[in-house]
Amino acid sequence: MQVVKMELRGFKSFADKTVLTFDRGITAIVGPNGSGKSNISDAVRWVLGEQNVRQLRGQKAEDVIFSGTAQRRSQGVAEVSLYFDNQDNTLDIAFSEVVITRRLFRSGESEFYINKRPCRLKDIHRLFADTGMGQDSMAVIEQNRVDRILNSKPDERRIIFEEVAGISRFKGRKQDGLRKLAETERNLERVGDLMSVLA
Ligand code: ATP
């Protein structure tokens, strides 16, 4: 799976339709302070379903909508689409190209789409769960998080590596498995007790 393109319109400082294409390898976005570099990573988080406005450096949901400048009126809707090459079927959907879209109106109404078909936020979260791109993944690392990682204790850093390597997921499943095993052992004991009473 690879992000190949992003389209923004009315999102933060991107009033006009803006199309960014991403080639294979590393893409660096450069520009003067305040030119909108971080707004691009905010757009990635937002379209992937981020609900916490502080993670998007805002106070309220509508802060992602272009709020106007001295020369330009504000807009009524923000829209971001993110295109994925899914030829390796990382996303569990029968399309080799997948596009997810999020739209927010100033009225508060919001819309989500997968391949231009309306869906729920939950469907977006499900589609990206366990792909490394989902909510709470390390796919987007903001500036202050870099400091936090560098200053973290070895134990905390280990958790980060486990998350990146996808081990946390298995640790969670192991805990579930151990819990079920303990429950089964308790049930077996009860069966043993019943058998001894009946014998
Ligand atoms: P730096 O290099 O300093 O980190 P940057 O290139 O990452 O800067 P951003 O933080 O992405 O810049 O962009 C900040 C700009 O986005 C500011 O000029 C701010 O006014 C503008 N901006 C943020 N939200 C909106 C909005 N809703 N409407 C219009 N402009 C916005």
From TrEMBL:
Protein name (record): RecF/RecN/SMC N-terminal domain protein
Taxonomic path: Bacteria, Bacillati, Bacillota, Negativicutes, Veillonellales
Shown chain mapped onto the complete sequence: 1 to 199 of 882
